[in-house]
Amino acid sequence: MKTENITDTSKRKFLGGAALTAGIVIAPGVLLQTVQAKPDDQPVTNKVRWGMLIDTNKCADDCTDCVTACNTENGLTGFERPETDSQWIRKVTLKDKQTGHVKTLPVMCQHCETAPCADVCPTGASFKREDGIVLVDKHICIGCRYCMMACPYKARSFVHEDLTDQKDHAPRGKGTVESCTMCVHKVDKGESPACVTACNKEHKAMYFGDLNDANSDISKRLKQYGGKQIRADLGLNPGVRYQGV
Is 16 inside any structural domain? Predict the structure, then answer.
């Protein structure tokens, strides 16, 4: 497996780790299983590779629940001004030119194993955690936007204006670049990203889990039904996979 050199990771890592599998008994014989939570005093490790699987056959064309959930969870404005507002997840429409078949799917940061954004960042603000989640350290981001140019998925946004009503768990700042964090603040507590939770209330088109765990639901689905990478030819090994495209 290819790894990347990250300068001075100890200053920039979001503390986390793979620890015990959490389960909550809600009724006799019923177990509510969650993702693996980590103790706050343990660092993240590469024993876990967090990933997401999206079944586009279940993704409704007119549904934007995942986008709304992301905006609400992370304090985004919801694109009142598309020319300046950040967009961490967006719905994309694909059309087969030969058949005319149309399909929609959500696209966000793909959390690449070999992340181009981290490769080109001159300060190390863009980095990949050991568990595969790609983040931006706003303290050292200088707003050069090299990462935006390097990202083949157009998954990053630049904050042009002053911000208000920010969330404590999703720090943002004028003059910095930002993108989907895979709701790292929720993942580190043993919860799923907000977009996945919202989608599963009705459509159940998004799955989240440990790609390194053969027994996780996401790994079993990938083994049984397969999954495609967007721009697999780039060899980036993204943590987000799609079915039905």
Answer: no
Per-residue pLDDT tens digits for 139-161:
999 999 999 999 999 999 999 98
CB-count exposure of residue 202 (10 Å: 0-12, 13-18, 19+): exposed
Which residues have CB under 8 Å from 185's CB, separation 6+? 169, 170
Nearest partner of 222 among 237, 235, 241, judged by Cα: 241
Summarised one tens digit per residue, pLDDT across range 20-73 is: 333 333 333 333 334 566 667 778 899 999 999 999 999 999 999 999 999 999
Give the three-state DSSP class for 67: helix
DSSP state of 37: P
Strand 240-243 relative to strand 50-55: parallel, antiparallel, unpaired?
A: parallel
* Residue 15: band (very low, low, confident or very high) from pLDDT cuts 50, 70, 90: very low
Q: Coil, strand, or helix at residue 143? A: coil
Measured CA to CA, the distance from residue 204 to residue 221 in angstroms comes to: 13
b or e along 138-174 (b: 16 or more beta carbons within 10 Å of the residue's beta carbon)?
A: eebbeeeebbbebbebebbbbbeeeeeeeeeebebee
User: In angstroms, rounded to a whole number, what is the distance separating the alpha carbons of residues 62 and 112?
Assistant: 28
The answer as to whether 40 is a domain residue is no
Split into its structural domains, the chain has a count of 1
Tell me if 108 is assigned to some domain: yes
Q: In this structure, what CATH number is given to the domain that contains residue 215?
A: 3.30.70.20
Q: Residue 1: is it exposed, middle or buried by C-beta count within 10 angstroms (0-12/13-18/19+)? A: exposed
* Overall average pLDDT of the 171-198 stretch: 96
Amino acid 211: pLDDT: 98
